[in-house]
Amino acid sequence: MCWRAAWIHAQRNSRWCNMPKTAWLGGLLTGFYVVLALGGAAWAPVPPDRVDLEAILNAPSAAHPMGTDHLGRDVLSRLIAGARTTLGLAALVAALSSLAAILLGGLGGFAGGWMDAFLMRLVDAVLALPGFLLAVCLLGLLGGGWLPMVLLLSAVGWAPLARIIRNEAAVVRSLDFVTANRAAGFSLARNLLFHVLPHILPSMLILLLNAFLADVFAIVSLSFLGLGISPQIPEWGAVLYDGRSYFFSNPWLLIFPSLAIAGLALGLHAFADGIREYCDNKKLLFTHERLPRYAAAGRLCASDPT
Q: CA-to-CA distance for 26 and 278, rounded, in angstroms?
């Protein structure tokens, strides 16, 4: 009974226990993929690069739960080892593009004036380009590789995030407490880091999750086209590429990698939707509809003589 009472008390008083079930399910599924990525080849039942010429294109069995490919390599081991490569590269691309979006979008939305106009024209120019097709063309000319792929995807992926962050920062900039901070002589960097970014942090988290999933799809697609990392390195797109010629005779070579990608997409979408629902219920998302309410509260506090 003591443990039950403690659990009920924690549920009533903890914010995390009040999160929607979709957030919990999506978080657990996403966490499962993160654990696989952190473990990498150490979690694989057999070495992912082991070639077994006596087990070529074997169907799923107890020895190989997801079958083997055209070189006798275990598909399950290659998927587990490829999770670190795919998710690691996607996390790197999402981090670089998000950093650029936060700096440029937040700076433009908070500073305003000519700087905002210049940065938004730069965003419009980047958005006018077909990002993925541009990456395909340039990687075809450069010969592929993980570093050019990460840089190109980051260069075309920051613009949509920057526009949304700019709009959020522009809303926060018009609030009374930010105006008071600027009148008090607070620097642009201090206002941006300590007063603007904390207000748009929930929105940035949701955007980051969606950007991470888009980067996973882009990396898998480029690797499937042969423009990603080296084919010898286990990666989800490379696993799909190896099984493309055996779809009708050995469909598991495409089905299991597709299910792994679909599971990650389902987990990230559920996690992001659950966080959005939680933030909406707790009024943590800073939207344009709530601007008059915050402005009225700010004027009330400013007129209070105490």
A: 13
